[in-house]
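Write out structure tokens for RagB/SusD family nutrient uptake outer membrane protein.
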Amino acid sequence: MKIINALLLFISLTTLSSCSDYLDVVPDNIPTIDHAFNNRVNAEKYLFTCYSYLPNPVDPNANEALLGGYESWIAPEGWWYFDNSNNLYAWKLARDGQNSNDPLLNSWDGGNGAGNLFIAIRDCNIFLENIDKPVDLEEYEKVRWVSEVKFLKAYYHFYLLRKYGPIPIVDENLPVSSTPEEVRVYREPVDDVVKYIADLLDDCLEDLPDDIQNQTQEMGRITKSAALALKAKALTLCASPIFNGNPFYTNIKDNKGRNLFSTSYDPAKWTVAAEAIKQAIDFAESHGAGLYYYQGFDPISDSTRIKLNVRGAVTERWNKEILWGSTKNDNFLQQVAAVRLQNAPASAPVISMMSPTIQVAERFYSNHGVPIEEDKTWDYANRYKTGIVSQEERYYLKEGYETANLHMKREPRFYASLSFDGCIIYGNGVVGDQDYSKLNYAQMKKGQTGGMTAAEKYSASGYLPKKLVGVESVINGSNWTSKRYSFPVIRLADLYLMYAEALNESKSTPDNDVYFWIDEVRKRAGLEGVKESWTKYSTNSSKVNTKEGMREIIHRERMIELSFEGEPYWDLLRWKEAESEFKKPITGWNVKGENTTEYYEVKVLTQPQFSIKNYLFPIKQNSLDVNPNLIQNFGWGTSN
């Protein structure tokens, strides 16, 4: 029997109108199920097929969270160079290009930059139904593989949930003998989907490895820490404003009359989430996980060491903070994030086009660990004017250089995360910072090495995400050598801040537990604790004493700590803050300016459009036509 006869595909989730339509597109050379599972080697290949559907987090052309959330922008006249297939789907999403006729980043049906995750789930089910067949497969291997595939199945449901809200639960594939009525599946209520994901993760825990022992061949495969962390994230999403009593969705019902979203706020969901997050943290730490601290022996200043703490948490391959990392090749991501340090021809592989905005630069704290607009010692009103860098900041900025006041007296994460005019670029073949004359620095004005030298391949804003470039990656004229890293899908700092959030939401007023977890992250970044910082320096010192004030602080802390890793996009959606954040004008410096006066003018790059409907992705209209039991997401009509 051919695989398609056992795929047990539910047709209602595709754009096809009948079983025969689907059969018509199946190649004749598809192997049989018996062949796919006739021995251990082939079964392992099928296991890796289940892994192969994982969305690529390091592809800025396809990852909705890298370019779709306005953290970074692209120079319009050069975007073809950034993506010469002209399919920069995530940027199209940010440019209000989403629609229901042919959705961007369509994880439901597949297309426009995304794979069909229901096919991924289908193949996971095929694996689970047939893994007993290989006679040469050891039992200990089988139970591990089964648990890995259950995790992947849970993750694919989670990814769809995060994008679409209510989704069909595909616990088992439908047989090909199913009637038309049986294949017209329903979207299930959000709470039911979350429970299914959590139960599936609980079910796979026992047989997942605590750690990866064969690190040469198996890094990136699933461990208990990854499963516990994913469960924590799913329960936190369920407790968040997007799904916890959201009035936007109160009256969204299917044709059975079921509410697909919770109709009232339930504070107990935050308690449940907090318990799951703490369990994930405790297990990970008991098995060697911890916040990353740079352990190199280079003769470096404390300032540089703190920057390497922050940068290395992302770019130090398989460091102990990464609970689950990607094995995808991040070379292109580094190319679009790196700043050119020497003159290079237009054909040079360093593309330098992923452009963080001024809004992102302003999001980072002052050197006192509080927002720049709140720091009573920081000259917020004159932030766009320029000044001369003092010796005190020489490991962050080029001493004596004239740059924006916005770039001075900022927290270490600002300098670890962003490249900009006048900033020090540690690394690039330089070991140690004691010989200050050897340190590279960015020059971003038009005609300078890091600035606009042609009609493409330049930062549209004057910023680049330094945090995404490995310290050991090297730019030398037209030559580029990158050191691959394991992009963090989930890292421990994410859980720390998520735990602080869940604790704060589950209490009437913040306490020391709330402060502790956020302060652990701040300490690694060279900052004092929140209470100390706000008491000493903030014009709103009482903010740390209220639930609402700490909510604002924790949200901003996550936006800073997890910048350029994708989480800010999903966070703003789950907090229901995107409708305000995503409507702000996108601004940058005048990158066509050739001198300091011209360059340091704030330019509006675009005025984003965002409406309530954009909190969830649309389902393709054709899928709704095929299956009348599916309903469209809020705000997406047939004409959208």
